[in-house]
Amino acid sequence: MISNKLQDAINNQIQAEMDSAYIYLAMSVYSEGKNLRGFAHWLKTQYNEEMGHAFKLLNYLTERGGTVKLQAIAAPPVEFGTPVEVFEKVLAHEIHITSLITKLYELAIEEKDYAAQIFLQWFIEEQVEEEGNASTILERLKMVGNSNGSLLYIDKELGKRA
Ligand code: OFO
Question: What is the whole-number distance in angstroms between the Cα of residue 49 and the centre of ligand 1?
């Protein structure tokens, strides 16, 4: 059985993951509107990943005998700026999510919940990947500057995300 403290914190993290999903979906729609279809595809794939993270937590909480309490998700923005600004926001958001995962892990240690610590290690590794991906794309976008041709090349590359 999971402690109430950890149960509440996991419920908060489910909300945070769904919130991430919603933000990326909004970014995807925004990019589609700018005819950046590869960006839109990458961001929609990210939306699906975030929903996967939320479900992973939700299933775990149920498995541990906890109660899932779904929370409200705020409306995301409509405008996200230039492609560089979009990915600055993606990276900043992932850094924020990493800090939440770290706090969750610290709580699992405090609560001496070894099973939760093992479970959360997957999320710790995932955040390394999430930040890495966002940071690589951001750096490449900064590299190409105002070159539309290069931007379209990156768009094509992002469209290949499986
Ligand atoms: Fe769920 O990793 Fe991004 O937010």
Answer: 8
Q: Which atom of ligand 1 is nearest to the CA of 46?
A: 3
* Cβ atoms of 60 and 14 closer than 8 Å: no
- Which residue, by CA, sits nearest to atom 3 of ligand 1? 94
| 3-class secondary-structure state, position 136 | helix
pTM, to two decimals? 0.96
Domains of the chain: 4-158 (1.20.1260.10)
Q: pLDDT (tens digit, 9 = 90+) per residue, 13-39?
A: 999 999 999 999 999 999 999 999 999
58, 60, 137 from 65: Cα distances, Å: 11, 9, 40
